[in-house]
Amino acid sequence: MNDWKDDYSLLGLGGLTSLITNVKVSLWGNEVLIECVYSPEQRLPYLLEFKDCRDIRWTVHDEEEVSELEAEFFGISLGEPEHRKPAVITTDIFEISILYGSFSIQKGENFNSSTSDLETAVLV
Predict the structure, then answer these.
(1) Which phi-psi region, left, alpha or beta, contains residue 112 (left: φ > 0; alpha: ψ -120 to 50)?
(2) Alpha-carbon dihedral angle through residues 82, 86, 91, 95, given to the nearest 10 degrees
């Protein structure tokens, strides 16, 4: 990817490592939820939520690691909402590219109690 930029700092998590613990695709691929933990020692949960998805591309980099329960979060490019440019999330095991309409991040133990929306339109 020529114009790769790492938008991890825009998620507002700080400088510690994140792990991806689950990827849920629902509504026939129209919604993608990526469950993560920040600071693996403290295991602070957060959720990356992509809605109105039009295209999802998945590449497995390390077939020997597919049975692992967590993937190390290497980087994210948020792309552009409204289906203009896909978000790309890279881990040690896989990379996923999502062409989406809207994006938000939810942080905290109870995702409904502490919600923080990140509108990528303001980030671009």
Answers:
(1) alpha
(2) 130
Handedness of CA 78, 33, 119, 81 (dihedral sign): positive
Average pLDDT per block of 10 residues along the chain, 124 residues long: 68 89 94 93 94 96 87 94 96 96 86 42 33
Are the C-beta atoms of residues 73 and 35 closer than 8 Å to each other? no
For residue 106, the tally of other CB atoms under 10 A from its CB is: 19
Query: CA 110, 50, 77, 105: dihedral to nearest 10 degrees?
Result: -20
DSSP character at residue 30: T
DSSP, res 52? S
pTM, 2 dp: 0.81
**Rounded distance between C-alpha atoms, residue 91 and residue 33, angstroms:** 16
